[in-house]
Design goal:
Layout (H helix, E strand, L loop, with lengths): L26 H12 L13 H24 L6 H14 L3 E2 L12 E4 L2 E3 L14 E10 L2 E10 L5 H20 L4 E2 H14 L3 E2 L5 E3 L6 E5 L10 E2 L4 E4 L2 E3 L5 E3 L7 E3 L5 E3 L2 E5 L4 E5 L1
Antiparallel strand pairs: 1-4, 2-4, 3-14, 4-5, 6-10, 7-12, 8-9, 11-16, 12-15, 13-14, 16-17
Helix pairs in contact: 2-3, 4-5
Length: about 290
Amino acid sequence: MKLTNPKLDRNDPCWCGSGKKYKKCHMAFDEKILGYELAGHIVPRRDMLKSAAQVEKIKASAKINMACLDAVADAIHVGMSTEEIDQIVYDTTVRMGGVPACLHYEGFPKSVCTSINDVVCHGIPSDDVILKDGDIVNVDCSTILDGYFSDSSRMFMIGDVNPEKKKLVSVTKECVDIGIKMVKPWTFMGDMGNAVNQHAIANGYQIVREIGGHGCGVEFHEDPWVSYTSKPGEEMLMVPGMCFTIEPMVNMGSCEITEDEEDGWTVRTADGKPSAQWEVQVLVTETGCDVLSW
C-alpha cells in the first residue's frame, strides 16, 4: 500500500522543522500514526499539522476574527441591513491590519456571510435585506492576517424570537459544544461527528450532509473535510497539530438543501424551515483541543 507519509531515516532532520534528528523528535509519533494506517484507518498528512509558530499566527488572525463578531454583536438590531453588518466586519478587519477572507473568494462579493432564517449558509449581505423582529441570523466571518486564516460564526436572535427558533439556536450551540468535547487525540472524526449528529436527532433536527467543516490555518479551506453525519470509528484520525472547524448546519426540518441559481452562493433549506449554525476553529492538542476562534 502507498503510505500517506513518506518514511524518513532515523538520523534525518525531523520534518517538523525543529532542527532535531527525526529519532529524537517525531519518529515515535509517526510510528503511532503508521500503526493506525496499517490497520486501515485514514490518517493525516504531515503538512496538515500546525507548528507552534503557525498556531501563534493563526491565533493572531483569530483575534481579529473574534473582534469582528464582537463588533457585530454590539451593533446588531431590528431594522439593520445586512450590508451594515458587512461594513462593520470590513472596517474592523482592515483597522486591525487584516483582510476579510470571504471578500472575492471564488467570486464572493462581500466580506462576511449573513444567513437569515431558512438560509443555511453563504447569504450575501445587501442594503435590501433588513433584519426583522423574530429573525435568527448567522454571521460567518473569516480573516487573513500575514497569510494565516481564522474562521468562526455566531448566531444572533433579533428582537422577539419564537420559542421554536430559540430552541434551534440553543441546540445547535450545544451540538458545537459536544463536538469540542469529543475532539481528542488518537480518536476519529467520526466519533465527534456522530456525537454531534445524535444530539441534533434527539431534539428532532437534521444536520446538512453536503456541507461540513474543514481544515483552516495556512489556507482558507484545507483538508480534512469534516462531516457531522459520520459514524464512530470512521473518518480521519485526529492527532495533535490538526486545526479545523466545527460548524454543523442544523435544520428544523429536512436536511435537504437548495442553492440559489441566480447568485450561485445562497444555500437554503429545501422545505423553507429555519436552519442554524455556530462555528468554532479548534486545534487538536495532547489532551483534547484548544478553541482558537469562536
